[in-house]
Design a protein that fits this description.
The protein is built from ten helices and ten strands. It starts with 18 loop residues before the first helix and ends with a helix. Bound molecules: alpha-D-glucopyranuronic acid.
Length: 356
């Protein structure tokens, strides 16, 4: 991994030597990722939430589904609101919460496992990303219309806007009496795994981030790209609007990239990261996802933590390295968010819940 941009050296060449240095390096890496990858972060606005419907029949009546509307005050006279669904526990007390960024707002979408999540003691919030802004190059759509795109190459791409929306959903969720604000996880699959990682890199309220098959511009390192994997050139041609123009204008020149994806994971330290891959998902490049865990791991040492307890040897199918603050798991099967993925995320969170 010597060919990777150095995690533990500031841009001016100074080495990172102390926890304070590591915190400063994290801020530097976030600005680097803003300027060169996803676009500048957007400041939060005041948020409120209201319930629009309730269904008490979920999970054999052991949970309640609340349909909510999250209202963002964009300026003095303008609001933008979007739907959010909460499958919540009915017993009293604060509950750990999983927030899933999803591709649909169907109550029982194929990626959802609400009963499983609820039976494990968590509440589940689900946010359909296209209620924030559509997944295309139209920056006049939805929330994007409120954030005039900068012309200096660092304008927020759609991933940054989706991450911003997840942050506003969290503003509301963390204010609820029934949510344990110290036990919040953000989960995303594929492009939404990329979004979840970028959101958690910036937002320290997220204690656990779980990315599933997030691949290129998610957990997978560019410089280790394996056969069949998605390259920077391909992703920035197919989805230029996900990123800032500075990234697109690099035309896929990976060697000159001033970062690699281990920087993204390292920005989450000392919090918890669970990276899942699928063995038959070469496009998301499972081995490069594992390698970014290896590359990010030294950040955790500055906080007295272990980081990743795996190595560079590709792990076997249906195996993983679950024990450190960064976990990696490769299940059998294809690109999908399924029960084994939920089980590994929930197992990871439960295993680490009582640490520190
Ligand atoms: C495409 C894209 C990937 C992305 C995936 C998804 O395959 O190339 O980068 O992760 O869509 O979001 O499903």
């Amino acid at each position: 991994m010597d060919f990777m941009p150095e995690l533990l050296r500031f841009t001016d060449g100074t080495p990172v030597r102390s926890p304070a240095d590591m915190a400063a390096r994290r801020r530097e890496m976030i600005s680097l990722l803003e300027n060169e990858a996803y676009g500048k972060a957007i400041p939060p606005v005041p948020v409120s939430g209201r319930r629009v419907a309730t269904d008490a029949h979920c999970a054999c009546g052991t949970a309640v589904v609340e349909d909510l509307r999250i209202c963002c005050k964009m300026d003095k006279n303008t609001e933008y609101s979007f739907p959010l669904r909460l499958y919540r526990q009915t017993s009293p007390g604060k509950k750990p919460l999983l927030l899933l960024l999803n591709f649909s707002d169907k109550k029982y979408h194929e990626y959802l496992q609400p009963e499983f999540v609820l039976q494990n003691g968590f509440s589940l919030a689900v946010l359909h990303y296209e209620h924030l802004t559509r997944d295309n190059g139209d920056f006049s759509d939805g929330l994007a219309a409120f954030f005039p795109r900068r012309t200096d190459g660092t304008g927020a791409g759609k991933i940054t806007i989706w991450a911003w929306g997840a942050g506003r959903a969290l503003d509301y969720l963390l204010s609820r009496e029934d949510v344990d604000e110290t036990q919040v996880a953000l989960i995303g699959h594929s492009r939404l795994g990329k979004t979840a990682l970028w959101c958690a890199a910036q937002d320290e309220r997220i204690r656990y981030v779980c990315s599933n098959d997030s691949g290129c511009m998610g957990a997978a390192c560019h410089r280790t790209l394996h056969e069949g994997g998605e390259s920077l050139k391909v992703i920035t041609r197919a989805f230029p609007f996900w990123f800032c123009d500075n990234l697109v204008n690099r035309h896929g020149q990976t060697d000159a990239l001033p970062f690699d994806q281990h920087f993204l994971l390292a920005c989450v330290a000392p919090r918890y990261v669970c990276i899942n891959s699928a063995a038959e998902d070469a496009w998301a490049d499972p081995t490069s996802e594992q390698l970014s865990c290896v590359g990010a791991s030294p950040a955790w040492a500055f906080y007295g933590k272990t980081g990743f307890l795996g190595n560079e040897t590709p792990c076997g199918v249906d195996e993983g390295f679950p024990d450190g603050e960064i976990a990696y798991y490769k299940r059998s099967g294809k690109h999908f968010l399924g029960l084994p993925d939920w089980a590994s995320f929930i197992g990871f969170i439960k295993d680490h819940r009582n640490n520190d």
